Amino acid sequence: MLGANIRIKRDSKWLGRLPILLAIALALPFLTPLIGPTADLERTIHDAYRYRLAEQVDYDPDIALVVYDDQVARTTQKTSPVDRELLGQAITTIASANPRAIGLDMAFVQETDQSQALIDAIRAVQVPIYIVYADPEGDRGVYWDPTIDLFAREDQDRFWQALEGSEARRVSPAIGVGPARIGRSWPDTLPGTAPLLAHAMSGTPEELRSYRGAIRYRVLDRAVFEEARTDIDIANGMFPVYPLDLLADELFAGDFLPELEGRFVLIGSDTFGADQISTPITRMGEFQRVAGVTVHAQMLRQALDRDFPPPLGWPWIAALSVITILLASGTALIERRIVFLIAIGVAQAIGFAVMPFAIDAAGWDILKLPLFGLGLAWVLAYFAVASARRDQSSEERAFARGALGRFVPARVAEQILEDPARLQLKGEERELTLMFTDLEGFTKFCHGRDPRQTAEILNAYLDAMTAIVLDHGGTLDKYVGDAIVAFWGAPIASADDTERAVACALAMQAEGVRITERALAEHGVALGRTRIGIHRGPVIVGNFGGTNRMQYTAMGDAMNIAARLESANKQIGSDILVSEAVRDEASDHAYRSLGRIAMSGVATGIALYEPLASELAGFAGQWNAAIAALGAGNDEPWDALVKAHPDDRAAIALEPRMDAIRKGEVHVLQSK
């Protein structure tokens, strides 16, 4: 029989590592938000969900924006500092509309000759006006220009001293700006510093001002978005927007002032490159950045709604981590078909994808939800448990694989081990591709020879040929002396079984030549050619035998035909003979036609074909054309072919059957 003793070494490394790996998996959701690259991934995932979770609304009824945009800057020829006289005029006009409050998202850190005009306008205002105060030490989450030095702060302090006794109130312009200036969250502020602009204007209760969760962005409803009048409307989303110079002109502002009555009016810059930041909405949407005043408006809307959901604390994250590891471990332990495992995995992936929506709908903030960490924990836990499981069963699998590998290809053995239900050992009818081989003259070779030398040569021959059969996906049926019986299509069938069988025959033919050369060189003996017959047809395949000993084999007329084809090689002058059924099923190979014969024990005539190596495809074409010409009464192509290949054994053996070839008749072989 094939093979050597099976050696099994149990390797328990994964079992030993399992507790450590599971502990790492449990910790991953806590670690990924803290490590640079994975923290970036967590933030990106959050931004994608925040974009999808953004509520679509109509224009906000309570908040309006007045912007000092690029058009205003071009008109006034002033960008930084802004035209303070124009700003003062706009504030005066806006205040006349009786808004609920005015918010000024501009820090006045540089004194100009227009400062007094602005101060006078602010002091004259009779509505609350909230003005940001630049405090680089106190405000966290604010990008401050390095030019805000000591002298700039002195200018700012003088500006505020001039406003004492007015309605002006200091506020912080801080936004929770993370890496790459992306405004995702409410910021940290130091005790004793000015309140956030949104908290101050909305009158947020003190107990709610500790909120550090996500800014819950809203977006303009798509239908309204498509009808937006200008690019400003689109860029600033759901808030009505007015250019500052329009409201500074009393003549033109009159038509718009009623729209500002009772609203919170935020004034800020919206010039290219100045006070512009990214948000989760702009990262995933159509615009790269928005003005900082727009983000303050979003925060103000959230504060007015008192929409401050509680964060997911570490107990919740720990619970989600445990659930994730349990799901991954359970999946790794399921012993079902791969399709079922894929379905389970897809269902869990969908569950993970839907989870942020469910958590948000339940009233919790998802800013700290470590989705990437949970996914990584699932992968690690699944890998660890699956590896430990494979480790635990390696001894049994190695034994079963080794035992099956003696008779079926390794790939078939693996498929059977993965899904034992695919192995049907009871007798059943199947369409198989069947092979019989024989070593020419071996009986005569054995006569009078040392049995030990004979056994050594035969075992080497059978070992090499069996390896080729298994490498090509065949199932070993039996050995009969020097003959091998094999088949393709059982216990597990593949679409290319017949292609594999023909390729196997060609490989065995080439290996037979090498074995003959080695036997002659090493032992001084000459072995005969390897003859092969292949047929495809219906057989009964399964376990046959007695109660105590059974054999997995195939039986039927198709087996007999394959055996006759192998035997016919001797009279046909070929090494490999296949039936027409095989030729049709494995048509990618080159074949030469060897006529049609009737064999002893087979009632109907069989067309014979010999597969040739790919480099002989041209010769096969010439041969088949010459045979066709014979049938048409033209001998010239055949005569030329024979003259060119006088030693071709098949051509020589064909001479007694020339009349049958010309007439298209079946030739009767006289013996097996």
Task: Describe this structure as you would to a colleague.
Helices cover 48% and strands 17% of the residues. With 672 residues, it is of the alpha/beta class. It has 3 domains: 101 residues; 253 residues, no CATH class; 243 residues, Nucleotide cyclase, GGDEF domain (Alpha-Beta Plaits). The strands form 5 sheets. Strands 13, 14, 15, 16, 17, 18, 19, 20 and 21 form a 9-stranded mixed beta sheet that branches. A hairpin with a 7-residue loop joins strand 19 and strand 20. It is elongated, with a radius of gyration of 44 Å. The two termini are 28 Å apart. The N terminus is likely disordered.
List the helices and strands and how they pair.
Layout: H1 13-31, H2 36-53, E1 55-57, E2 63-69, H3 70-76, H4 84-96, E3 101-105, H5 115-124, E4 129-132, H6 150-161, E5 168-171, E6 176-177, E7 183-185, H7 197-202, E8 218-220, H8 222-226, H9 231-235, E9 241-243, H10 244-248, H11 250-253, H12 257-260, E10 264-270, E11 276-277, H13 280-284, E12 290-291, H14 292-304, H15 314-333, H16 338-361, H17 371-392, H18 394-404, H19 410-418, E13 428-439, H20 442-446, H21 451-471, E14 475-480, E15 483-488, H22 497-523, E16 530-545, E17 550-555, H23 557-572, E18 576-579, H24 580-585, E19 590-598, E20 606-612, H25 617-631, H26 636-644, H27 649-654, H28 658-663, E21 667-668
Parallel strand pairs: 1-8, 2-9, 2-10, 3-4, 3-10, 4-5, 16-18, 19-21
Antiparallel strand pairs: 6-7, 11-12, 13-15, 13-16, 14-15, 16-17, 18-20, 19-20
Helix pairs in contact: 1-15, 1-17, 4-5, 15-17, 18-19, 21-22, 25-26
